[in-house]
Amino acid sequence: MKAFPQIIVKICPFIALIYSIAVIILTTYINEKLTPVFIFFCVQVYLNWYSVYTISHNATIMEVKTMGKKLLIYNEAEDNVEYKYWYCEKCINYTCKPTQHCVFCRKCFHFRDHHCFFLGACILRQNIGNFILFCFYTSLTCIYSLCTLGPYLYDNINRVIRTDTDSFNIFLNFCFPIALVRLLHSRESTYILLVIMFDILVSILCICLVYATWKLHSCMSGKQRYANISGKQTLREIFGNYGLSNIIFPYNGLIGTRDLNGRYELKQI
């Protein structure tokens, strides 16, 4: 892979982090205080982000040890049972289970879904619950910030542009291309950045809410696939042995394993 795409992928998490901090500062400045609800949402976003990243970074694969001087894709053991191995040409490793190689993380993963550029980590079966919670709390944080930023923008943009107060014109004032033209025409560019941030927040809200809902539905309905493995998952399988308690605090992603009575080991596969 060329160097330029790799650079873009590496700076995406930093851009997301800087933007999130800017939103927190702006929301706090306009609201003139830090509410417990907003603090809770922000903490949950960062804790689940950290959980997704650390689980992806620490994930290991089941490598096949060298047998003599040769490794075979199919190996016949002493009991005449044939075992199948998988080989990655980029990692130069044989594994006991199917893997997918991530060109951005430069390693193989078991039960990989996709690479999230903004989190800087791969989404796996081990951290899919933290990823869903991250998207969910990001949506709630966006709603809170929009409810704070929206009225502030409405009052100030209407004062600058002096448009009609019907619903359609109010909607146009919050659409970036139209709001940009109107603000430039009025020779007042103070609120252009706020309009951009407002529209980005709306986009993030829609994407995260829809994607989190779809991923949760896919896991519970059996449509979610990891390599050649699929099947319905319960909430305890998705979020770990703490279940819905992870909504309050991501126990499994930070302090606990995901062993469900010896049946499911989601953190280290």
Please describe what this structure looks like.
It is a single chain. By secondary structure, the chain is mainly alpha-helical. Helix 5 (176-185) packs antiparallel against helix 6 (192-221). A two-stranded antiparallel sheet has the order 1-2. The protein has a two-stranded antiparallel ribbon with strand order 3-4. Helix content is 53%, strand content 12%. It is elongated, with a radius of gyration of 24 Å. It has helices at 3-31, 36-58, 128-161, 167-173, 176-185, 192-221, 235-239, 251-254; strands spanning 74-76, 82-84, 86-88, 93-95, 100-102, 107-109, 112-116, 121-124, 225-226, 229-230.
Features:
two-stranded antiparallel ribbon; elongated; 269 residues
Largest sheet entry: 2 strands, antiparallel
Going by helix content, strand content and strand pairing, the class is: mainly alpha
What overall form do the CA principal axes indicate? elongated
Low-confidence stretches: 66-77, 259-269
Read across the widest sheet, the strand sequence of neighbours is: 1-2
Q: Strand-residue fraction?
A: 5-15%
Would you tell me the overall average pLDDT?
Answer: 76
Order of helices and strands: HHEEEEEEEEHHHHEEHH
Radius of gyration (Å): 24 Å
Strand runs, count: 10
Helix content: 40-55%
Family: Belongs to the DHHC palmitoyltransferase family.
Keywords: Acyltransferase, Membrane, Transferase, Transmembrane, Transmembrane helix
Membrane topology: Multi-pass membrane protein
Protein name: Palmitoyltransferase
